[in-house]
Amino acid sequence: MQLFSKAIAILLGSLILAVGINFFLVPFHLLDGGMIGIALIVNYLSGLKVGLTIILLSIPIYLLAWFKYRSFFYHSIHGMLISSLFIDVLRPYQYYFLYYVELDPLSSSIIGGLFVGTGIGIMLRFKTSTGGADLLAQYLSTILPINVGLIIFMIDAIVIYLGGVLISKETLILSFITIMAVGVATSLLTWKQKKVVK
Questions:
Q1: Residue 135 in contact with residue 62, Cβ under 8 Å?
Q2: CA Rg value for the chain
Q3: DSSP string, the chain
Q4: What's the half-sphere exposure (Cβ side, CA atoms, 13 Å) at 13?
Q5: Which residues contact residue 112 at a Cβ distance below 8 angstroms, ignoring those fewer than 6 apart?
Q6: pLDDT band at 98; cut points 50, 70, 90
Q7: Contact 179/32 with Cβ under 8 angstroms?
Q8: Could you tell me if 72 and 135 are in contact, meaning their C-beta atoms sit under 8 angstroms apart?
Q9: Average model confidence (pLDDT) across the chain
Q10: pLDDT digits (tens, 9 = 90+) for 155-178
Q11: How many Cβ atoms from other residues are within 10 Å of residue 60's Cβ?
Q12: How confident is the model over 23-52, as pLDDT tens digits?
């Protein structure tokens, strides 16, 4: 039953994540942090598919996880592969969505961030994830005296800054709004309520 729940979480989370990326972030060249953000920058500059780029860029990190932290590997490999597949499968439907729905860049950055954060949050709630930069941050936190959350924030900030330099200043500002929306949605879905002792 637990395995079934995790499979549903991966599928649903990946679908919601892919909707956020394809229908809200990509049309306005917006970024998320981490590996998704790097893949989006590569897509905007070269046209290479986002999902495929995520898989290619994740190979060294997953090799490291396989040899150093096998449990991290098992908990995130499925999420990374399925979400990458969904991102590329939904890409052709972007045209139809944009034909019927008109959004400005600011609204798109907020809504897209909420979708991406919800997808990630659903997976994290069931002890799985999309891996990528989060895996790298977990590894770095074991060899550096820095909190894993701070490492993730630094990676995200570097990715967003690079996007601002390589794409546009508007991308920089709107993408910071996106990652804040991602953070809010993810936090709400992974919030642990304290049990009240009577």
A1: yes
A2: 16
A3: -HHHHHHHHHHHHHHHHHHHIIIIIGGGT---SHHHHHHHHHHHHH---HHHHHHHHHHHHHHHHHHH-HHHHHHHHHHHHHHHHHHHHHGGGHHHHHHH----HHHHHHHHHHHHHHHHHHHHHTT----THHHHHHHHHHHSSS-HHHHHHHHHHHHHHHHHHHT-HHHHHHHHHHHHHHHHHHHHHHPPPPPPP-
A4: 30
A5: 20, 21, 23, 24, 25, 30, 178, 181
A6: confident
A7: yes
A8: yes
A9: 87
A10: 888 898 888 888 888 888 999 999
A11: 10
A12: 999 999 999 988 999 999 999 999 999 999
Nearest to 49 by CA among 8, 76, 87: 87
Amino acid at site 20: G
Q: Which two tokens stand for residue 84?
A: 């990458």
User: Does position 111 have pLDDT exceeding 60, yes or no?
Assistant: yes
The percentage of residues in the chain with a pLDDT greater than 90, rounded to a whole number, is 44
* C-alpha span between 37 and 167 (Å, rounded): 12
Q: Are 17 and 130 in contact (CB under 8 A)?
A: yes
How would you class 120 by CB atoms within 10 Å of its CB: exposed for 0-12, middle for 13-18, buried for 19 or more? Answer: buried
Give CA–CA dist 16/8, Å, rounded: 12
Considering only residues 85 and 70, tell me which one the structure prediction assigns the higher pLDDT. 85
Which pair of tokens denotes residue 123? 């997976």
Q: Which residue type is seen at 6?
A: K
Question: Does pTM top 0.90 for this prediction?
Answer: no
Cα distance between residue 58 and residue 60, in whole Å = 6
